[in-house]
UniProtKB/TrEMBL annotation:
InterPro entries: Beta-lactam-related, Beta-lactam/transpept-like, Beta-lactamase/esterase. It comes from the Bacteria. This is CubicO group peptidase (Beta-lactamase class C family). Residues 16-364 form the Beta-lactamase-related domain.
Amino acid sequence: MGFVDGHCDPAFQGVREVFEEQFAAGRQVGAAVAVVVGGRPVVDLWGGTADGRTGRLWERDTRCVAFSCTKAVTATAALLLAERGEVDLTAPVTDWWPEFGGQGKDAVTGEHLLSHQTGLPAFARPVTPEEATDPAAMAALLAGQTPEWTPGDGHGYHALTYGWLAGEIVRRNAGVTVGEFVRREFAPDLWIGAPPEVIAQAARLGGRPAPAGGADPVARPKTDDLLHRLAEAYMDPVSRMNRALHNPRTSFNNPLVLAGGWPAAGMLAAPRDLAAFYDRLVRGEILRPDTLADATRTRVDGPDRTLLVNTAFGLGYMRPNVNFRVPGEGRRTAFGHSGAGGSLGLGDPAAGLAFAFIPNLMGDAIGGDLRSFELLKAAYAALG
């Protein structure tokens, strides 16, 4: 059809067909998808326009904002430090972050930070993009806040604050930012805080608006009443959902944000490199298999105090649920993270599968985005 370039193993031709159909139907502007099976890249496809203003095409090495796919990478950095014995995630955070204590937070653990149980889903005051370039300042703001619910008593999506909470595990125990640690230790091509030359070549986001910092609030709500409540919460400036998703309020085309290294949502990546990260995770090359198995064990599953729908998380990784859609073949063993606009990163140890998809046409935050699910379904189908 002329929309798509790259490599696709003949056994995975179904993935290419779905990808091409999405372009032909006008559901993609620019995007890339990658699949790795047992360490072997079987799909590496890209196509369309990276920048609608200039007409610049999406090329093999084009990177794009992956939004909350970032969270899984940040969590992996924290888990690696715990595996090495440099931090105890089951102990109180105050053991290594004394300033975090008080205001009902003394019993918060690292596991609470990694599983959206801390009760700090939003900043208590407006934060500027300039302020958000300083992780120490962001962490200090959160340390001074009172939780919106008792930590550990339920969970709620920490769309942007997650990065500066979980990221503090890394910053305080490794002495470097999340982005520096990730590139040094296990993923040199994933940019959480990118230099000017990487930002200049990144895809430009456009199309339908989506939340600034997180996964789509809901996919295919079951009732009109739920859809109405979600739409109201998304638009209400004082709702927990709105405050969590939109503070700091900015565009993710803003170079300041991409350079700032927001550890919850600011990663620039090519799907090839994100899929390679999940492949290495699945094959035990980043974390030990027992570490990964424990981290992907579901810690919370049920009504989300921020997003209003059911969500499920291990330690930093989403488990299959309404905003992390996985075909039936992977529902028991797949893990990963979705992101605003339709992006997705996923690993499945049982299938030996790693998958990543990143578009620059933003998906519909309320209605859901099926593009990644369609591609992932085709990938599972190809496994036989």
